[in-house]
Design brief:
This protein is α/β, with parallel strands linked by helices. About 40% of the residues lie in helices and about 15% in strands.
């Protein structure tokens, strides 16, 4: 396996990101060691908050929230998923799989022997973190679910999966603008545009992704999100993620693993909070499944983050942080 490591010079003087790096090795399926980077901030004896990012971001996404959460007395851990941030980046798209990502994160969690965690997850952080919670429910004390999902066989029935398979070849390779238009129009196959753009567009770029899913205009912030990817060769993980969402028939095994995770979550009585944005074109309305299917989420005052967009950590860090802090204090 060819493995790339972003030069440290790429991360010098990033806006708002002056955290000490921590590293731990995990192993790929073929035994290749992969260096995983993570942040570990706040009091070591404080309750642990595990913050998981999605695609195509990294722990930089939580830079505004970490000081707020640590000031409230919590320990915050924010890993960079393999392929992102300061973590190593396997160079081939085929090196990445849904279960592979779960396995890398599980290795990291077990090596640090993390327990009594409050999971905070968004985007792919939810697809990975919630599956991990299904595998190790005793290690999690609470769940905070934001702008994410956990697609299973109930949500993606075989007929729907077959329909996606028929539609996908008919989708032209879109531009980032086309993807944004499809999401905003609420087109049924909008996510397929996203998959095809990331997988096949010769013009795929981190900057354009943030352009279609956020209104960030500060170039220094966009530089921060782009820093882990000096050139196209580093982008395999970012390009691969949308294709790993288990929509198509060849992903039936991953949906079955999500079914198993849901079976555990549907018995999870510890506290669960949803904090979805009211204007995320990708996941709007996705909170309903968590609120109705997980016992710990029922009869709770869930939070809607106004104007949070897809990257609510970036656009509404104070509101999101305060919702987490209030939830943890109420359920202490």
């Amino acid at each position: 396996m060819k493995v790339l490591r972003t030069p440290d010079t790429q991360f010098e003087n990033l806006s708002g990101y002056a955290f000490a790096p921590h590293y731990l090795d995990v192993k790929a399926a073929d035994g290749t060691p992969l260096r995983m980077h993570y942040l570990d901030e706040g009091p070591k004896d404080g309750e642990t908050i595990l913050c998981l990012h999605g695609q195509p971001s990294w722990s930089y996404l939580y830079r505004k929230m970490i000081p707020l959460l640590t000031a409230a007395g919590y320990r915050v851990l924010a890993p960079d998923l393999i392929g992102f941030g300061k973590s190593d980046k396997p160079g081939s798209i085929e090196d990445y799989s849904y279960s592979g990502h779960v396995g890398w994160l599980e290795q990291w969690m077990l090596a640090l022997d993390l327990t009594d965690m409050t999971l905070v997850c968004q985007d792919w952080g939810g697809l990975l973190g919630l599956r991990l919670a299904g595998m190790h429910p005793d290690r999690f004390s609470r769940l905070v679910v934001a702008n994410t999902g956990l697609p299973d066989s109930r949500q993606v029935a075989p007929q729907l999966s077959e329909m996606f398979a028929m539609l996908y070849p008919q989708v032209p390779v879109p531009s980032a603008g086309d993807v944004g238009d499809a999401f905003r129009a609420g087109a049924p196959g909008a996510f397929l545009f996203w998959v095809k753009y990331a997988a096949e567009s010769p013009d795929f770029s981190i900057r354009d992704v943030f352009g279609l899913l956020s209104d960030i205009s500060d170039t220094s912030i966009l530089d921060g999100y782009e820093a882990p990817f000096p050139d196209e060769t580093y982008l395999a993980g970012a390009r691969r993620f949308p294709s790993l969402v288990p929509l198509l028939p060849n992903a039936a095994e991953e949906r079955a693993k999500n079914d198993a995770a849901w079976a555990v979550l549907e018995k999870f009585e510890k506290p669960v909070l949803t904090a979805f944005a009211d204007d995320d074109p990708v996941t709007k309305g996705g909170e309903a499944a968590f609120q109705t299917r997980i016992p710990g989420a029922r009869d709770r005052n869930h939070v809607t983050i106004s104007g949070g967009g897809h990257f609510l950590q970036e656009h509404r860090p104070e509101a999101f942080s305060q919702a987490i802090i209030a939830f943890m204090r109420e359920t202490a």
